[in-house]
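Bug report

Summary: structure tokens for ATP phosphoribosyltransferase differ between web form and batch submission.
Environment: batch mode, default settings.
Steps: 1) Submit the sequence below via batch. 2) Compare with the web form result.

Sequence submitted:
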Amino acid sequence: MTEPRLRIAVQKSGRLAERSLELITGAGLRAIRGANELLYRIENHPIDLLRVRDDDIPTFVDDNVAELGIVGYNVLKEHFPDKDLEEIIVMRLGFGKCTLKLAVPIGFDYQGPQSVAGKRIATSYPNILKAWLSDNGITADIVEMRGGVEVAPRMHIADAICDLVSTGTTLEVNNLKPVELVLKSEAVLIKAPHAPQPDLAHIYDMVVRRFDGVTKSTGAKYVMMNAPRDHLDEIINLIPGSGSPTIMNLVDPSMVAIHAVCDESVFWETLDRLKAAGASAILVLPIEKMMP
Ligand code: ATP
Ligand code: MG
């Protein structure tokens, strides 16, 4: 009998493909090409990667074809507009960030959602748009398009669009301006409705734990400094996103050493403020791995 293998559905190629693979590699899983382009094997664990179009990932995972999947929140929401997604989402992954925005031609006199009532709006996200329209108590004609949504107004197919935006350049080039934030999105790890079979439970838990570690350590820093004991509270408050720092005595009784893990970026401005509050010998070190 062949050994059971855990299956993780990932985007084959596209905006999430590379970062998904980085997450997998960062978790110590060594991916090699399998029998075909659709399947990668993890050579050091009983895991296969199903490489598919991102649109297929929610269905694959929901049908238990894959135990886990990495997909944009936008795609998940569009697929399951009425489901409680918190039951499906294992964790947010911090990459693939983008926003779904309502945009109108530059000359359009936009005064709020009412301005698009009764208009034609082109989108690849009809379900999400429908929900937004209903939340705003308006109706409009939804023109569903697979891609190239941004050219719809110019081609007189629609009066407005609802599309994904990350930098806004595409909108600008097409003479459009964003007017409403419809949905914020990032890549999420999703799980199948059925628990993994018992043989795979420990692998499943390991993958989830390691993905959590990789996600949390991305951008995280280890910060060390010396600080005057009587400014300790002020200094700790300045350290960004640190849970509970370690405080150690120094030979000089008026001083302590602070060690802290920051789960946010540490900017020069923060270091300036720490310095001004009396901190000295400040070191900011990258964290390679972290197991929360
Ligand atoms: P597939 O061939 O797998 O169906 P696709 O063309 O539908 O790919 P991509 O353009 O590769 O999808 O985008 C995948 C996901 O990346 C999006 O669903 C979204 O979650 C995320 N994303 C991040 N930034 C952007 C952006 N600027 N535009 C579009 N998607 C973005
Ligand atoms: Mg797609």
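Above is the batch result. After comparison, the two runs are identical; trailing whitespace caused the diff. The chain has three domains: 6-96+187-217, 98-184, 221-286. The chain has a mean pLDDT of 95.
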